[in-house]
Structure formats: structure tokens, C-alpha cells
Amino acid sequence: MLANVQTMDVVYVNIWAVVISLVNLLILFLILRFFLYRPVRRMLQQRQSQVDRVYSDAEQAKAESESMRQEYADKLQSAHDEATAIVSTARERAERLEDEIVKDAKEKAEGMVRQADKEISQERKKAMNEIKDDISAISVEIAEKVIGREINQEDHDKMIDSFIDDIGQ
Q1: Taking the C-alpha atoms of 52, 54, 55 and 56 in order, what is their torsion angle to the nearest 10 degrees?
Q2: Which of 32, 45, 128, 140 is the most buried (most CB within 10 A)?
Q3: What residues contact 144, with CB distance under 8 A and at least 6 apart?
Q4: Helix, strand, or coil here: 77?
Q5: Per-residue pLDDT tens for 47-81?
Q6: Is residue 134 part of a domain?
Q7: What's the farthest any 2 CA atoms get from each other in the chain?
Q8: What is the pTM of this model?
Q9: Domain count of the chain?
Q10: Three-state secondary structure of 29-45
Q11: Residue 98 belongs to what domain range?
Q12: C-alpha distances in angstroms, 10 versus 3, 14, 71?
């Protein structure tokens, strides 16, 4: 039995040791909480705020870059529209200038044709008058030779008119 009693002492639980261990554990917990947990928590909060600030800055930079991209696209579209307008205006001016040049050229050509027609008409009249004079002089000479006498002005004019009418037909 003695052997049984000795084995019992080994299994014995000391309540005061357990209570002191629990109190030590509680004190250790409070010390760790005060000196370790709060600073670690503060550090984690600071890091979290830094991470949030970095994300916020990144979002802001992204928004600014999107704004700048949109502004660039708007400026590019505006420049394209302005270039199109300039080209269109230049084309319209060129077409108007072309129309004016063609119109002026036609007017000058028509003026030259009218002037040439006028000169031709004058030359024709002049030539006809010269031919009339030549014909009348020749016809007077022929008539004098044929008739053998001198023709007066009235007979002369009648003969010339008759002769010219015959030639004209």
C-alpha cells in the first residue's frame, strides 16, 4: 500500500499553484496587452491608413489621368474638326476663285468674240463699199463703152443697184 500512497502524491493538484499560475497569466496578459497589443494595433492602424492613403492617391491619380485623357481626346477632336473646317473653307474658296476665273475668262472670250465680230462686220462693210465703188466704176466704164455715151448719175445708180442685186442673189 505504501507504493499506492506514493503514486497518489504525484497526481496531486496544488490549487494554490494553479491560482498563482492563473494570476501570473492574467498579469502577463495585461502587461502584453498594454505594452505590446496597443502599440502593435496603433502600428497596424497607421499602416492601414498609409495603405488607404496610397489607394486614395492612386484613385485620384487614375481619375486625373482619365480626366487628362478625356481632355486630350477632346482637344484632338477639336483640332480634327478645326482642320476639317479649314480644309473645307479652303476648298470653298478655291472653288469660288475657280468659278470667278472661269467666269472672267468666258466674259473676256465673249468680249473678244464680239469685238472680232464687230471688226469683221466693219471690214465686210468696208470691203463691200470698196467692191461697190470698184464695181460702179467698172460698170460705168463698161456701160460707156457699150452704150457709147456718158451716163448721168441717176442712170448710174440704177444700174449699180441692179447689178449688186444680181450679184447678191
Answers
A1: 80
A2: 140
A3: 150, 151
A4: helix
A5: 999 999 999 999 999 999 999 999 999 999 999 99
A6: yes
A7: 206
A8: 0.40
A9: 1
A10: HHHHHHHHHHHHHHHHH
A11: 10-168
A12: 12, 11, 85
